[in-house]
Amino acid sequence: MAAMPSLVAYYQYGGFLARFAACFCDGLILWLASMVISFVTSFGFGLVGSGLGGDAGEIVTFLGMLAGTLLGGVLLPSVYYGYFLSTQGATPGKKLLGLAVIRPDGSNVSFVRGMCRSWATSLSGIICGIGYLMALFDDEKRALHDHICDTRVVATR
After folding, report:
1. How far apart are CA 104 and CA 7, in angstroms?
2. Rounded to an integer, what distance in angstroms lies between the CA atom of residue 95 and that of residue 156?
3. Which end of the chain has the lower number of beta carbons within 10 A, N or C?
């Protein structure tokens, strides 16, 4: 059985600066939403905790801060990337810059792959952003998270 040829060769890959700008836009959106979530959960749990008083109140307040951090810092970005990449082919930041994320055969990314791409993006930045810089030297302009999730960022304009 012959292997299916990659359709990615027909696309123009997204440039490093456009990808950086898109990442910045998405980061700003996620930061704002995360701040709202963190504030609401911390404030809500803080009110409950202050009503309890003592050690129980401190524990409830701490749990509120932990819940806000997990919701805003882990769950929100995962769902954000999973939803937008699977339903629209691009996050709002990528759409703004005329970029899309596709699979090698040209299809959209699944929700789970979009979530995994969000987690893999964290790996790209861990060691001084070297995972991102890989896109400068890769023939298909893929960063570490693109290699991990087998995705390509292409220009739509």
Report:
1. 6
2. 9
3. N
Does residue 80 have a pLDDT over 70? Answer: yes
Which stretches of the chain are DSSP H helices? 16-52, 54-70, 76-87, 92-96, 111-126, 130-137, 144-149
Residue 58 predicted with pLDDT over 80: no
Lookup: tokens for 10: 């027909």
DSSP state of 105: T
Mean of the per-residue pLDDT values of the chain: 87
- Whether the model clears a pTM of 0.70, i.e. scores above it, the answer is yes
Burial 94-122 (b: 16+ CB within 10 A, else e): bbebebbbbbeeeebbebebbbbbbebbe
